[in-house]
Amino acid sequence: MWETLGHDNVIDFFTKVLANERIGHAYLLSGQKHLGKFTFAMELAQAVNCLNTDRPCKTCLQCMRISKYIHPDVRVFGSDDEMLISDNSQITIDEVRTIQVESSRKPFEGKSKIFIIDNIESMTIEAGNALLKILEEPPSQVLYILITTDISRVLETIISRCTVFEFAPVETKKIVDYFNQNLKEKSLIDLQYIAKISRGKIGWAMKAIEEPNILSSRESNLEKLQTLITENVTTRLGYVEEILSDRTHSLKLAIEQIELWYELWRDVLMVVYNLPELLIYTKFSKNLKMLAAPLSAMEVIKCLKLTRSALDDLRENHNVSITFERMLLNFPVLGKI
Ligand SMILES: [Zn+2]
Predict the structure, then answer these.
(1) How far is the CA of 67 from the centre of ligand 1 (A)?
(2) Ligand 1 centroid to 47 CA: how many Å?
(3) Do 142 and 97 share a domain, yes or no?
């Protein structure tokens, strides 16, 4: 039984394909982080090699070994899953060569050899071209499941060799229903709130329930932004400098912050439109009202556009601090809350 939540169209497709034994050679799973792409890829690997009829059964030897990452025919590359000991999710040319060599060998114990290759957008051109060569002449009994959070950065030639599945955010109701059915200790958790904040990212919602500090740190970050919007240029630039002080992760940190800004402006817009039922961060509704008071819808939409274009610029490799600062300096300065 599939345990991937949502994405019914993708599951239906593969259920049919597996029933007819017509699985292809290469699939590309595309969509934002935490939507369940990696979970689905692992389940697909199980379903392909499963020994029972209701695939993936999750109980046969094949399914179990795959879920523990100890199946010799199922290899994972580029993943930042914490069960895999890897501190670098960028796939190297050497790893692609390993994939090439292993692809030419027959499966040891499963029906198919499966390579799950995550974060393919961060591959070097050299590694990407080597992967393309493999995809151009895929050996039989081998399945490549590629995963990306940013398809615009994946080589066109690689995309053209794969069947692409776009993973959409999971509906809030589905996430709430899932937790209601599966959580033992749920009385203390506001599931509706977490599901809403996750914005369809089931993986994030699961983590937030397991580790409550994820939610509290998101909230305190958002509170900081609410104050920052009332501060002057110097304070704003100080904030950018502080966020980007960790130079190795500056791009990731900037994107996280800008996405949070987007959520803040989105909620401010809901207040301006007088649609309180659509607020995500309901616990900040008093502050949001104060921030929204002097603003018109057009002004808030302009701020939303500034965050969107900052995110686009970062994805196109523009300078991180210039992009981040420009966005911040173009936001209005509001009265203290
Ligand atoms: Zn099985």
Answers:
(1) 10
(2) 7
(3) yes
Average pLDDT score over residue span 36-42: 95
Task: Please check whether residues 146 and 184 belong to one and the same domain.
Answer: no
The verdict on residue 64 lying in a domain is yes
How far apart (Å, rounded) are the C-alpha atoms in residues 302 and 306? 6
Query: Cα of 113 to ligand 1 centre, how many Å?
Result: 15
Cβ neighbour number for residue 154 with a 10 Å cutoff: 20
Q: What secondary structure, in 3-state letters, does 153-180 show?
A: HCCHHHHHCCEEEECCCCCHHHHHHHHH
Q: How far is the CA of 254 from the centre of ligand 1 (A)?
A: 42
Domain span at residue 19 reads 8-166
Residue 54 CA to ligand 1 center (angstroms) comes to 8
- Going by their DSSP bridges, the two strands 163-166 and 26-30 should be labelled as parallel
DSSP 8-state symbol, 153: G
Question: How far, in Å, from the CA of 53 to the mean position of ligand 1?
Answer: 8
pLDDT tens digits for 172-206? 999 999 888 888 776 677 888 899 999 899 989 98
Tell me what ipTM this predicted complex has.
0.99
Q: Is residue 267 within 8 Å of 291, Cβ to Cβ?
A: no
Contact of 208 with 185, CB cutoff 8 Å: no
- What is the CA(27)–ligand 1 centre distance, in A? 21
| 71 Cα to the center of ligand 1, angstroms | 13
